[in-house]
């Protein structure tokens, strides 16, 4: 009670006194209405509020829009350092949006202050409904446009790194730290974790998963949800909503292509293996995950309950969302679509930009299986399938139209809006939407959190080869080192001398990335995603340099395994070979000199050749012929 009173001192809405307690008068009618009464349950308050909302307000609540930024070519996507408050005010006032993704990339104090500005705008709306502000992951090394952000948040390995360690207590601790950082800056929803299984090694989204093993992934997903949501009983006033994705089968990507693209819209199943891809989600359900995001993919050749699955993306699929997710597995939370499933996919979306022209995000849409439906019909089909909230769109007017022409009922919208608002009430957003920017500056990326992240980076390293016991490095004199991809500052901090000629070095330390190809540059996401071959090839500058250097000096190489690279040509030439899933130079050197030990085990197998990759099945784990390193492999010293 006292915490509520303190928070109410920060609000702009009038404050009412009742029975010695304080309540916000969000609709400014001079009465403590049930939805304003924090003594009632979240669901009671949500049902009362829904009864006061117009059809337009309900439809707006089912949109998950984008918080625009100012300046720069990606301002419409929200990438920048400051919000376009005029544009966001228009969204809140006219479209009635109450859910926004933030992609601001700025310091914690500024991010907190900017989110407060948005909440102040929302609190002045007719009913004073606070914003739910979401984000893609901010605590990892991965960076793909529209997928993750580079910030001053504490930095941890990718999800694959947590799978490599396989310590659920550590994963919960990570989630708890990230939860505190998110809430400090005014973020309430994590568009994560990925419960997808990386059974197709060529797939560009492997790095965000917990690997290819369903049991390992299920343990990690459950721990992640518990950490972020502040316990296993559903989100509370200190928790961050987790949106577990992508339901279901996304990782079985046909030929490795990603379903953000028309050419990659299928996940293909070769047998009754859909159940295996469901298993990691059961860990999320056991932890009462608050949200689920359907996959874009069309599940080719998959069946459920003995029946073929309709050949539409999961966001339009009643079998997957209602029959399976809601009824069979009893999921009670919010189903929020992936971004842009209702957008059109026209000629440039299907076939790419013409030669000589650059693709743009105006070409993007992911309405797989319903491309020929009018946009309003796509919205109606998704709601009928079970969707509550639409990611990346603000076309609430089309939901209103669908009601008025009889495609949908108001009662169906009400059920979704109650679910959405119940979570806002459970998180305490109606009482305390604002945060303290000074607190955010002190808490986010503080030394304790940073140290915990560094420790996880060290332990996630997987030692694959250590020929002649070169590691840990021990020398009675300062070493002369040749570096590639490692900062000279990190080496000199260790007391080493950096040389530019490998012939003058005692050792070489090199970073390599997993190989990839850019096979579809005429598509927006084809420009960004790492597709194609996993094999190192001649004429690649990094690989050529590795061959040159390793021929003349003992070479330690670490490979960032965003995908399961084929390390065959490295194994015999490197004295030490280390897999990483996101590691800083400092953490890497700590392991090389023995201040910490690599403790990771491979969360997927590493194939021996592209021929083996091409003959394995996209929906089955651990099925590469004679893998170079099997699932679970890892040495130590």
Task: List its salient traits.
637 residues; Rossmann fold; TIM Barrel; eight-stranded parallel sheet; 22 helices; globular; six-stranded mixed sheet
The average pLDDT is 95
Task: Say what oligomer this is.
Answer: single chain
Low-confidence stretches: 1-9, 143-149
Structural class: alpha/beta
Helix content: 25-40%
- The CATH class of the largest domain turns out to be Alpha Beta
Largest sheet: 8 strands, parallel
Q: How many distinct helices?
A: 22
How would you characterize this protein structure?
Strands 13-9-7-6-5-4-3-14 form an 8-stranded parallel beta sheet. A 6-stranded mixed beta sheet has the order 15-20-19-18-16-17, with helices on both faces. A two-stranded antiparallel sheet has the order 1-2. The N terminus is likely disordered. It has 2 domains: 442 residues, Glycoside hydrolase, family 3, N-terminal domain (TIM Barrel), CATH 3.20.20.300; 155 residues, Rossmann fold, CATH 3.40.50.1700. It has 22 helices and 20 strands. It is an alpha/beta fold and 637 residues long. A hairpin with a 2-residue loop joins strand 11 and strand 12. Helix 3 crosses helix 13, helix 5 runs antiparallel to helix 15 and helix 6 packs across helix 16.
């Amino acid at each position: 009670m006292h915490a509520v009173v303190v928070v109410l001192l920060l609000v702009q809405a009038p404050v009412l006194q009742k029975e010695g307690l304080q309540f916000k008068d969000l609709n400014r009618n001079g009465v403590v209405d049930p939805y304003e009464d924090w003594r009632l349950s979240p669901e009671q308050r949500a049902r009362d509020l829904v009864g006061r909302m117009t059809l337009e307000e309900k439809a707006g609540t089912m949109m998950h829009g984008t918080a625009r930024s100012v300046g720069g070519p990606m301002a419409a996507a929200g990438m920048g350092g400051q919000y376009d408050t005029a544009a966001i005010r228009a969204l809140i006032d006219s479209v009635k949006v109450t859910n926004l993704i933030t992609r601001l990339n700025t310091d914690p104090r500024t991010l907190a202050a900017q989110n407060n500005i948005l909440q102040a705008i929302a609190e002045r709306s007719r009913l004073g409904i606070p914003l739910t502000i979401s984000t893609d992951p901010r605590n990892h090394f991965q960076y793909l446009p529209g997928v993750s952000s580079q910030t001053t948040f504490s930095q941890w390995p990718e999800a694959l790194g947590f799978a490599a360690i396989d310590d659920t207590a550590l994963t919960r601790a990570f989630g708890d730290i990230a939860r505190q950082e998110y809430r400090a800056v005014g973020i309430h929803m994590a568009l994560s974790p990925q419960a997808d299984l990386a059974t197709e090694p060529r797939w560009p989204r492997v790095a965000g998963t917990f690997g290819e093993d369903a049991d390992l992934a299920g343990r990690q997903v459950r721990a992640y949800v518990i950490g972020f949501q502040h316990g296993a009983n559903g989100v509370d006033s200190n928790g961050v909503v987790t949106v577990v994705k992508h339901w279901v089968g996304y990782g079985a990507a046909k030929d490795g292509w990603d379903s953000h693209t028309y050419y990659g819209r299928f996940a293909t199943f070769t047998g009754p293996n859909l159940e295996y891809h469901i298993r990691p989600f059961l860990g999320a359900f056991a932890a009462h995950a608050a949200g689920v995001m359907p996959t874009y993919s069309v599940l080719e050749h998959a069946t459920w309950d003995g029946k073929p699955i309709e050949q539409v993306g999961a966001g339009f699929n009643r079998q997957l969302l209602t029959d399976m997710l809601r009824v069979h597995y009893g999921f009670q939370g919010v189903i929020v679509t992936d971004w842009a499933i209702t957008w059109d996919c026209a000629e440039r979306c299907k076939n790419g930009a013409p030669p000589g022209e650059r693709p743009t995000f105006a070409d993007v849409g992911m309405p797989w299986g319903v491309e020929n439906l009018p946009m309003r019909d796509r919205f109606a089909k998704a709601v009928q399938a079970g969707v509550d909230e639409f990611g990346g769109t603000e076309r609430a007017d089309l939901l209103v139209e669908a009601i008025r022409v009889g495609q949908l009922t108001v009662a169906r919208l009400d059920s979704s809006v109650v679910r959405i608002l119940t979570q806002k009430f459970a998180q305490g957003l109606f009482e305390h939407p604002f945060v303290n920017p000074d607190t955010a500056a002190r808490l986010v990326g503080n030394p304790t959190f940073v140290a915990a992240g560094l420790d996880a980076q060290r332990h996630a390293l997987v030692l694959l080869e250590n020929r002649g016991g070169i590691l840990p490095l021990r020398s009675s004199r300062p070493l002369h080192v040749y570096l590639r991809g490692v900062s000279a500052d990190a080496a000199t901090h260790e007391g080493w001398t950096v040389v530019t000629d490998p012939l003058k070095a005692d050792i070489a330390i090199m970073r390599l990335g997993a190989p990839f190809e850019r096979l579809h540059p005429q598509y927006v996401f084809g420009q960004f995603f790492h597709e194609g071959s996993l094999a190192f090839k001649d004429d690649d500058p990094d690989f050529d340099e590795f061959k040159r250097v390793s021929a003349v000096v003992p070479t330690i190489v670490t490979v960032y395994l965003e995908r399961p690279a084929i390390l065959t040509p490295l194994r015999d030439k490197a004295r030490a070979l280390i897999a990483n899933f996101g590691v800083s130079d400092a953490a890497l050197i700590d392991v090389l000199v023995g201040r910490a030990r690599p403790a990771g085990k491979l969360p997927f197998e590493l194939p021996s050749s592209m021929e083996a990759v091409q003959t394995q099945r996209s929906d089955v784990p651990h099925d590469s012929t004679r893998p170079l390193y099997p699932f679970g492999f890892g040495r130590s010293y």
